[in-house]
# Entry
Amino acid sequence: MRSAFLIRSTFSLSLVAALAVPALGASPMDEIKQTTNKILSIVTNSAFKAPSKSEEREKRIRQAVDERFDWKEMARRSLAIHWAKRTTEERKEFVRLFADLVERTYMRKVEDYSGEKVLYEGESKEGDYATVRVKIVTKKGEDIPVEYRLKKEREDWFIYDVSIEGVSLVNNYRIQFHSIISQSNYENLVKRLREKVELK
Amino acid sequence: MEFGGGQGVAMKKFDLELAVGLFIIAGIVCLGYLSIKLGKLEIVGERGYEIYGVFSSVGGLKVGAGVEIAGVTVGRVKSIKLSNYEARVTLNLPTALKIQEDAIASIKTRGLIGEKYIDITPGGSEKAIEPGGRIRDTQPAIDIEELISKFVFGKI
# Structure
């Protein structure tokens, strides 16, 4: 009687474990593919082509992007040495402004998608960090190398930097933010970001 | 008297030769000092610590090139080796200088076609890279010819 109970409980435990394993197995490249395909399907979906649907489309694209981008990590890396002095409130506001800025800056380019091919070249992992190399082939035949840098957080991979043609997005903003803060102050940077984000 | 005179002349000659010898030694020492200073050699032994970064392309970066932060030269490139078909660059930095874990190292060019050097932008992490550790985030050298060819041949 006792052995039968033991067998049943071990069996159900292994069933639960087996169900949990697939969630742990997704590679960084798989995650990138998933998000990219999700965004492309929204952009190419004829149901959202009408101008009246543009807000809905934008919202869905942002949702897909927010699933994969670690905005807090990206904002912190971009603000770099100036992050430490910020209060919790300031940090929260900055992360939101940063996410808005990047999304608005690149939303137009995403919506301009017209059949470019996305080739997945490779990935490399080192502990909790990974890079995924992708190539975008434009209609003119240009190859644009893109590199995603990801960090594992609770068994899921999130993007913390994107390099296009070897130029890092985080480094680009890091240099600009530092320059603005050095020449004026943090409040001025926030003001400029707000203006940029509200303008669109 | 001749004897005394001869000894006098010999003394003068010895003095002269001694003076010339000392002068030559002083000249060699000065020359050596100048060479070392100009050649920027570290004779007193390597101070500071080393960290490394892996770049997909260093674009002709030379050993001994400068490492800059905010435009200030803070260290030197110690060695460049090919590792798994990528460039592994070891930097020598002063011990007091902490490089954050999320700092970004890029290969930059003096002017547009000048010599290459390493630029580091400090990050926001509280953790510093340990001696012998790795700068994870790097940017390769920008190949001007590649960009031009993409621009030229992109138009079909």
Chain B has two domains: 1-41, 49-141. The CA atoms of residues 18 and 75 of chain B lie 44 Å apart. The mean pLDDT of chain B is 86.
